[in-house]
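Aggregate trends can hide what the representation actually does to any particular protein. The sequence in question and its structure tokens are set out directly beneath this paragraph.
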Amino acid sequence: MGASKPRLRELPITVIDSGKPAAQEASEHQHDHADDGPRTLGQPAPAFLFVGDVAISEAEIAREMQFHRAMTPEKSRADAARALVVRELLRCEVARLGLQAAVQAQAGEPEEEACIRALLEREVDNRVPSEDDCRRYFEQNPERFHAPDRIRVRHILLGAAADDVTGRFNAREQAEKLVAELKAQPHLFADFALRHSDCPSKEAGGDLGWLERGQTVPEFDRQVFRLREGLAAFPVESRWGYHVVCVDALESGERLAFDQVHQRISDYLELQVRQRELQQYLHGLQERFEVRGLDAIEAEAA
């Protein structure tokens, strides 16, 4: 028996994650600046990555890396290399099918982007999920479809700049003293807010009203939604300083009806289906145009 054919690697499709048209995503990172990237003292940049007979140089990868931030340069290089491979696979298929002459670019649309758009419109099905598909997903994932949780909060802000070490130490110390006093005399919260708070809400006794997740700065939001009802036993830190916080009420979001989320589910499922279709299409292109060198680049990032 002959050796089994190696399994093709899945190439990430950033089109879906970015929300941009596939053609735009595939071509927008091209650059005409020949002097960008590593200096080579007049020599051509080396190339270790190939799609078919097309070489993708280290200079091209270096330019692409600015769009792929990562924890290490090796990971950024691997992400950039995969993105360039996807683009080159699509370009090669456009050339093989001779689409350039038949494609009419839209206003302001680069020719290559127009060709890739036409290619994907022709080769990749754009299937819209049925209402039954949407309803099935709704019933199988009830925890995803709730109105936002809400919390009613009062606070006293002891303000201090993020880079003021002494000021922040003093703010925390004062906040801890206020917490201790309010445990014994909770009825003084509004009075303390008026006297000590650096937030305009002090005029309303520190009342911030009903808050949903995402309505305040992330570090404050993350902490207050973990609190129970009543006075928090410790100050809450944020970029603005330290907060003495009292939670007056908590409300869990009610489950939404199917009609309220039907369109959201349909959009989500359509994107998922299209991503699978694009992935399968790229697998086919990898069989047609051999990709060489990507394994080594990814191994360095592992």
Notes: Strands lie at 47-51, 54-57, 150-159, 207-212, 230-231, 236-238, 241-251, 291-292. The first strand starts at residue 47 and ends at 51. The longest helix spans residues 258-288. DSSP finds eleven helices and eight strands in the chain.
